[in-house]
Amino acid sequence: MTLKLGVPSKGRLMEKTFQWFARRGVTLSRAGSEREYAGQVEGIDGLALVLLSAGEIPRELAAGRIHLGVTGTDLVHEKLPRWEQQVEEIAPLGFGQADLIVAVPACWSDVDTLDDLDAAAAAFRARHGHRLRIATKYHRLVRDYMTAHGVADYTLVDSQGATEGTVANETAEAIADITSTGETLRANHLKVLSDGPVLRSQATLWRSRVAPCEGSDRGVLRALLDRIG
Amino acid sequence: MPARADILARAADLRGGFEALGAQPVETPVLQPADTLLDLYGEDIRGRAYVTSDALRGEQMLRPDFTVPVVQMHMAHGAEPARYTYAGEVFRRQEQDPDRANEYVQVGYEVFDRTDPAAADAEVFALIADALSGLGLRAATGDIGILLAAVQGLQTAEPRKAALMRHIWRPRRFRALLERYSGRAPVPPARAALLARETPEAPDVPQIGKRGADEVAARIAALRADAAAPPISEGDMAALETLLSVRETMPFALERLRDVAVDLPQITPALDRLEARIEALGERGVDVDGLDFEASYGRTSMEYYDGFVFGFYAESRPDLPPIATGGRYDALTRQLGAGAEIPAVGGVLRPDLMLELEARGG
């Protein structure tokens, strides 16, 4: 058996993860061509690199098919109910910072907090005959957040991309999405509610609590944790 | 976990018992149109019910309870008065707790009868208590109608009352609204700044989305009116707080609430109903002197109840959900009845949990 480490398969998240491990003496790289999703590891024996979509890493950790994985806090919290029981946070990696926020049109000068959003939603529903729509792909996190804050008369509509555009297109009245700088929000004439984010997220190294880790794997895991600790 | 055959046999027994007392057995479809449930419960129901869809009928939900379809059936072609019983599976999506069942059998008893609401309340409670006798459960009761009456009669602006009524079932927001309307919580700085501006609209920002500038202006006007309204008095606030904290056995609870009614006379009719219910329960042989009453009971997760509410709990098994719950839901019949309404009260039992408790010696 080998200890499996899941890392996002492309983009800045992959490069920064490689750099983070390299600074700790573990060299991760793609095997073969740019298009091949196989990885190789130097600097530690018995560790295998698995390149995966960042969105699939929480599920693979929870299923125990990988022992370690790098992905955002947002994805772990959204996709894994009772995530604390399925994965353990080993280290925040200090990049990929993004907040899950709720944003409304900047022209809504009367709305600054969830309290305002709730009141606006009640009036909106009475006027338009349907509930105020919030576009998001983070259904569970946003619904739990709205429930905890007692917001009513809203509905979530699914948006897997270009979420900031849904308001101008009138397929939603507000959005809940991940943002790092807020540039895209401003460009789309949206503003963030002042209550604070639903969640602060960053790229994080997780350990699966369910992946079997026996014999030589335990030694590899201990060696790796020593190296990065 | 008791065997499925045993659970179904117990469910049939319980339903048979209610039939023997004159209830008409009913069946409802497992798939319910999602629209009705979403209108009633809002987005929260998506976290609690399984949603599916097809191209012809659109979104459907696996029935999360029987109450809504039974009410619809009764309003469509039921004769009055009516007593119904049913037994069958309900489905609850579990997103937080893997130990909670996502599919279980409920047995219910529902009464649609406008002649004597207190007697109907007592009838449902007593029948469910009888079915559970021997399990050593603790019963909790409450009455959402008392809080509704207290809010409706507050000396404050109508929009404030409407906002409080809308959030009766969300205690946290209800409390936040009260704190603001009474002046205990300061006006949020952004709102104070907005109202201080001469032109609170945002003219330099492009207008986007379906919520128009007139709607923004209307809300700002409403915020202005609210800022000018006098706060809810400290006397009313203190009385409301006393009301919400009442937690006694039934007769003592009534006595304390009668004291509250000196300051909040609007609750007197609701207290008269509570008194009539206590009497009716006594006539049914329920030990009202030992029965708990909590004025805040039933404000969460029982959104359609608007009067008497109750639940039965296994105190030795705090990990279990209530073994039975029920209450009065007159407002639900108004919402589903399109103009028609009928006083209604009912309760449901969990035969699976009853068997589990019996297997462990109660």
UniProtKB/TrEMBL annotation, chain A:
Its EC number is 2.4.2.17. One of its GO terms (biological process) is L-histidine biosynthetic process. Coiled coil: none annotated. InterPro entries: ATP_PRibTrfase_cat, ATP_PRibTrfase_HisG. The keyword Translocase does not apply. One of its GO terms (cellular component) is cytoplasm. It catalyses: 1-(5-phospho-beta-D-ribosyl)-ATP + diphosphate = 5-phospho-alpha-D-ribose 1-diphosphate + ATP. Residues 54-213 form the ATP phosphoribosyltransferase catalytic domain. Pfam families: HisG (PF01634). Keywords: Amino-acid biosynthesis, Glycosyltransferase, Histidine biosynthesis, Transferase. It is an enzyme of class 2 (transferase). GO terms for molecular function: ATP phosphoribosyltransferase activity. Pathway: Amino-acid biosynthesis; L-histidine biosynthesis; L-histidine from 5-phospho-alpha-D-ribose 1-diphosphate: step 1/9. Catalyzes the condensation of ATP and 5-phosphoribose 1-diphosphate to form N'-(5'-phosphoribosyl)-ATP (PR-ATP). Has a crucial role in the pathway because the rate of histidine biosynthesis seems to be controlled primarily by regulation of HisG enzymatic activity. This is ATP phosphoribosyltransferase. It comes from Cribrihabitans marinus.
UniProtKB/TrEMBL annotation, chain B:
InterPro entries: aa-tRNA-synth_II (IPR006195), aa-tRNA-synth_II/BPL/LPL (IPR045864), HisRS-like_core (IPR041715), HisRS/HisZ (IPR004516). GO terms for molecular function: glycosyltransferase activity; histidine-tRNA ligase activity. The keyword Oxidoreductase does not apply. GO terms for biological process: histidyl-tRNA aminoacylation. Keywords: Glycosyltransferase, Transferase. Pfam families: tRNA-synt_His. The keyword Zinc does not apply. L-histidine binds at D65, F66, T67, R92, Q106, E110, R299, Y304, Y305. Residues 18-351 form the Aminoacyl-transfer RNA synthetases class-II family profile domain. NCBIfam families: PRK12295.1-5. This is Histidine--tRNA ligase.
